[in-house]
Amino acid sequence: MNEKPKRHEQGMATRRAVLGNAHVDRAEAAKTAFDAPFQELITEAAWGHVWSRDTITRRERSMMTLALLAGLGNFEELALHTRATANTGATRDDILEVMLHVAIYAGVPRANHAIKVVKHVLDEMDKEKGK
Questions:
Q1: Could you say which of 24, 90, 101, 109 has the lowest number of CB atoms within 10 Å?
Q2: What single-letter DSSP state applies at residue 89?
Q3: Is residue 114 classed exposed, middle or buried when 0-12, 13-18 and 19+ CB atoms within 10 A define those classes?
Q4: Tens digits of per-residue pLDDT, 53-111?
Q5: Which domains does the chain have, with CATH numbers?
Q6: Contact predicate 88/59, CB 8 Å
Q7: How would you write 35-66 as a 3-class SS string?
Q8: Angle formed at CA 95 by CA 68 and CA 20, multiple of 5 degrees
Q9: What end-to-end distance do the CA atoms of the chain give, in Å?
């Protein structure tokens, strides 16, 4: 099999495992001719190559991703990846540790806003589970 279709297939499987079928199905349904190349890129590169590697766990990747997104101020993606922790094994304690690192290494204002985003997402997740 050609490497590109194999990478895309693996990427889609990993993307679904981490983000969930509902999210990926919405993204695929919203895809247009304009953003199809971008969707292909992230599926193959981010999900098929980086997230599919087995050198570290998905929990560890999830924690690194949260730190990077919070530190860079990508709060919409932070919300998405906070929700994904339900599938990666990263716990609420892990998320708090990540935010503490963000505060020291990327700045208190970024961590402060990131914590607000995370708390909101975790509250939503609790309500969805009936907690």
A1: 109
A2: -
A3: buried
A4: 999 999 999 999 999 999 999 999 999 999 999 999 999 999 999 999 999 999 999 99
A5: 1-55 (no CATH), 56-131 (1.20.1290.10)
A6: yes
A7: CHHHHHHHHHHHHHHHCCCCCCCHHHHHHHHH
A8: 80
A9: 46
| Residue located via tokens 């993307």 | 15
Query: Residue 129 in contact with residue 85, Cβ under 8 Å?
Result: no
Q: How many CB atoms lie within 10 A of CB 64?
A: 13
Residue 44 exposed, middle or buried by CB count within 10 Å (0-12, 13-18, 19+): buried
The answer on pLDDT for 1 being more than 60 is: no
pLDDT, averaged across the chain: 96
Rounded Cα gap, residues 98 and 93, in angstroms = 9
N residues, the chain: 131
Residue 15 identity (one-letter amino acid)? R
Which sign, positive or negative, has the C-alpha torsion 107, 56, 76, 116?
negative
Residue 112 in contact with residue 73, Cβ under 8 Å? Answer: no
Local structure of 92: helix, strand or coil: helix
Check: CB of residue 11 under 8 Å from CB of residue 52: yes
